[in-house]
Amino acid sequence: MGIGKLKKKLKKVSAEEKLRSLMRQYGRGLLGLLVLVMIVHDVFGTHGFLAMRRTQSEIKKVKADLDQLNKENEALEQEVRDLKSDPRLIEKIARDDLGLARPGEIIIRIPQGQQLEQHSDVKR
Fold first, then answer.
1. What is the pTM of this model?
2. Tens of pLDDT along 42-76?
């Protein structure tokens, strides 16, 4: 064997020994750091635990909103059915909201402010 090959082999062995020495010295610390980085990523990352909790909270809120809108929709559908079939309800709306009256009837409106005064006088 030539001296050049021997030096290369010694350098190679020396480099391997240095790497083993570094791994013995810093291996556990590097492994611990890697585990810590992975845990932080799993908790705080874009798809981590906190993001998942936030998304679940948003899903619950949207479901609650959807349930509320479905209830309102059912109430409005019932009101439409009532308006189509109940003449008394139609008459009530015509009288209260539109101010209509039957022939020969007179409508007397009391201003809102005076209505409040009358109620407060009655309570005294």
1. 0.49
2. 888 888 889 999 999 999 999 999 999 999 999 99
Which DSSP category does 83 fall into? H
What's the distance, Cα to Cα, between the start and end of the chain in Å?
121
Q: Where are the domains of the chain?
A: 1-29
Q: Which amino acid is at 8?
A: K
Distance CA 42, CA 38 (A): 6
Say how many C-beta atoms besides its own lie within 10 A of residue 17's C-beta.
10
Longest CA–CA span in the chain (Å) reads: 130
CA dist 100 and 93 (Å) reads 9
Alpha-carbon torsion (86, 89, 94, 97), positive or negative: negative
